[in-house]
Design goal:
This protein is 30% helix and 32% strand. About 2% of the residues have low confidence.
């Protein structure tokens, strides 16, 4: 009992210590009924949202304006646009489980079919737009857009989750034992692979690779041809429960089991973290990345809000000679870079970039104490010792200080775990280690990573020199690693 209570108390403490700056969404769309499923059009200009009361809504993704709505006769559990954006496929829940196809412009029914005991969780159009497919755990169906043609298969599969590729080419479902069944649609074939117990699945473009989230805190990427794991994406504080992959396959987003922490990775930039969102509108039910991976749609407020977040990597836009920025302008821009208003932060990033080498020395001065913090190991050793203090307040303070010390506390804590003086010291050291070896993007750290992105985009000799200095002397593992990866990408670009 004592151990459980201690774990709960420490988990709460660590959660508070890692609270993120809550970036607001770019657009919030308030809905009269809770949204159960969301899909982007292929162009990324429209969002479709379905609800369990049968309501279907089409929104302009840029403004959040409702463009069309209608009421389907059954609860909507899945939604997908046709490749040309003119049709919408819906999956409907039991007891009247079915699939239907609707004309987006007119909002009228094109075709429907009853699916006995199917209750589709995902639907998708084929690449040519002439058929739809759907999947639930252990169940699969296909239906042609015109004429006759309906096929399906099912098997009893306890537990697990399912997914379908956006082009309908492949679907999969898992069982409680960690076995995933893969089913290709054309030509029809199937196979199985063992990935361990998973809570969520998602497919990359063309169904060539798959992402899974399971018992650990990482997202794992699998090559389906070889059935081998090709990468892992770390950083979530808890196991992932929802996944989304952009249609171009460049971006992966995952939701942690707390229902409010979302992490976004850029696979093109060596699987680096692009964004982390502390969702401040209630628990998330749905994740959907735009086709280009620049926007993320989520639900919030009990499903009655559809939120659109900017998760894009920035590019330089300034043309011409570098801007001459005053000391006050530089200081103000540094403050704005971490502003809650994304547009204000984005404008600051671009203006700092426009300063070119006139900004570089200032930026190095700001990020150096964060990337290369002064290391007072005597204090860290003292805090480690105080994890076993007889006074609760001292133990709590030591825990917070070690959390703040981050990666610099790893080695002393590892030593404590080898020969812990007490059970509580061991538990505290273990939980702190778990947190600092999977660092959260605090506002301060996120600002440094954005500057590294900025320096990489500049690619001037001075900017590269700062990256090289951080890559060589950086004491914060994540920051040093990002600088090293930026240098590799710059070298690769020069080689091309």
């Amino acid at each position: 009992m004592y151990k459980c209570m201690l774990f709960a108390a420490l988990a709460a403490l660590l959660a508070m210590a890692s609270t993120l700056h809550a970036e607001p969404p770019r657009v919030q769309i308030d809905c009269a009924s809770a949204v159960s499923c969301v899909a982007w059009s292929a162009k990324g200009d429209l969002l479709a949202a379905g609800s369990l009361d049968g309501t279907v809504r089409i929104f302009d993704a840029a403004t959040g304006k409702e463009m069309k709505s209608w009421h389907a006769p059954n609860p909507v559990t899945a939604v997908a646009f046709s490749p040309d954006g003119k049709m919408l496929a819906l999956g409907h829940a039991a007891p009247a489980a079915s699939a239907s196809i609707w004309n987006v412009q007119a909002g009228n029914l094109h075709k429907a079919s009853t699916l006995k005991n199917y209750n589709p969780q995902y639907v998708a159009f084929s690449a040519d737009g002439q058929a739809i497919a759907g999947v639930a755990v252990g169940k699969f169906f296909q239906m042609k857009i015109t004429g006759a043609g309906m096929s399906g298969s099912s098997s009893v599969v306890p537990g697990g989750c399912c997914a379908m590729a956006p082009d309908g080419s492949i679907c999969a479902w898992s069982d409680a034992k960690g076995l995933v069944r893969l089913r290709w649609c054309d030509p029809v074939k199937s196979t199985t692979m063992s990935v361990g117990r998973v809570q969520c699945l998602a497919f990359g473009p063309g169904g060539k690779w798959m992402a899974t989230g399971g018992a650990d805190n990482d997202v794992h990427l699998w090559d389906l041809a070889s059935k081998q794991k090709k990468a892992s994406l770390p950083g979530l504080p808890l196991p992932p429960t929802e996944l989304a992959i952009s249609a171009d396959g460049h971006v992966v987003a995952a939701l942690a089991a707390d229902g409010t922490t979302i992490r976004v990775w850029d696979l093109i930039r060596n699987n680096s973290t692009r964004r982390q969102i502390s969702h401040n509108r209630g628990a998330v039910g749905v994740l959907a990345l735009s086709p280009d991976g620049k926007l993320l749609a989520t639900t919030g407020l009990g499903g009655k809000a559809l939120l659109i977040w900017n998760v894009a990597t920035r590019d330089l836009t300034h043309k011409g000679p570098p801007l001459k920025l005053t000391a006050k302008e530089l200081t103000d821009l540094w403050v704005d870079l971490s502003d809650k208003n994304y547009d204000k932060a984005d404008a600051a990033w671009h203006k700092l970039a426009a300063g070119g080498d006139n900004s570089v020395a200032f930026l190095k001065e700001q990020i150096w104490p964060i990337a290369v913090p002064p290391m007072d190991m005597t204090k860290i050793d003292k805090w480690v010792t105080e994890l076993d203090s007889v006074k609760f307040a001292v133990r709590e303070k030591a825990t917070k200080e070690l959390m703040a010390a981050g990666e610099m506390a790893i080695v002393p804590l590892e030593n404590v775990l080898k020969t812990p003086p007490s059970e509580e010291a061991r538990l505290r050291a273990k939980l702190i280690m778990k947190q600092i070896t999977q660092p959260v993007l605090t506002p301060e750290r996120l600002r440094v990573l954005e500057v590294i992105e900025l320096l990489e985009a500049m690619r001037t000799a001075n900017a590269i020199a700062v990256l090289e200095a951080i890559g060589k002397e950086g004491r914060v593992t994540q920051i040093r690693g990002e600088a090293e990866q930026a240098l590799k990408r710059i070298a690769g670009a020069k080689g091309n």
